[in-house]
Design brief:
By secondary structure, the chain is of the alpha/beta class. Helices cover 42% and strands 17% of the residues. It is built from 14 helices and 14 strands.
Length: 380
Amino acid sequence: MNSRIEWVIESSRLVAGITSEFARTRPFDGLTIGTGIHLEPKTAGLLLALAAGGARVVATGNLNSTQQETVDYLLAHGIQVIGGPTSDPEVHDANLRAVLAAEPELLLDNGGDLFARYLENPYPGFIGGTEETTSGRTRLTPLRDRFTAPILVINDSPIKQFAENRHAVGQSVLESYLRLTNRSTQGKRVAVFGYGSCGEGVAANFRNSYAQVSVLEADPVKRLEACLDGFDVSDRASALSTADVIITVTGAVDVVTAADLPLFKSGAILMNAGHFPLEIDVPGILSHPDVTSVDQSSPGIETLTLADGRRVHLAARGHMVNLAGPAPLGNSIESMDLGFALQTRCLEAIARDAVAPNSTLVPVPRDIDERVASDFLATR
């Protein structure tokens, strides 16, 4: 028995109830569900719920977030897991393609990895699926017309936006900073790239912990919102040159690059809270001639010494900081319980042919949002 995984599963009241229900109703009998998500204790409960509903589940993880204990637990409980912990993109690609080789009728994706590869080699019988993230929706939107089955975007549910993105991501990124660095937040200057719902939560949690927070946001409307929320929205150079902590949470690529090296103050800490490990151009920074040495200064923290003597610290090699590095915990159990309840109900609706075939990259249906919200409130 893995006490942590059991603790999480027992604490996930919505998913526990759905698991019991699915064991009776069997909405996925005869179907294979392929998944590419973070394999950590909270997702174990989600995958077991799908299996309880009759599904054959074929799962793999995401880059640098798979926890071996969770893999072992799932294998022991009859879930087919492909691969293990890896930060190698080629290994990750092979794992994703192995999932698709099972020709799952339903896909549960995180970042668009499975859906994008499905389009390279479509197979008969595919009936739809879910995408967890904004990053995945952004990636798949240009490909929308090539899909002929429903794809429901969990991240576009208002529940996901406020419960997980704003509250839980902000809280878990702050927790990860404290755990990895063992440094204070009081009086620190923090620069947050991005003011979507995740960025809002990160900025608010650091401010609530007495940091001085600047927000850097490309969208002038969101930048105005950050300003009216009381955050500094001064220019990029000023924010970066004074920041003690720099956090990317945009879903974009190359937000912080080697071109920013001259701006960083000595002692600055770089962290990525976005889904893909591409927001901080780690390869470009590490290979820059101004970086004279890279040392492991603490578990999950590398220190880059620059030619002029400045030292810049990189957390988790630019991977999603709340699910990378030592002893990662991710978002709170309650927030993920809500999100995974949305996942299971959406997949159930697709399996029961209750979603129109042209509902491609659309938000969670309102009736599912209302049901999940009511069920959660009933558990309180």
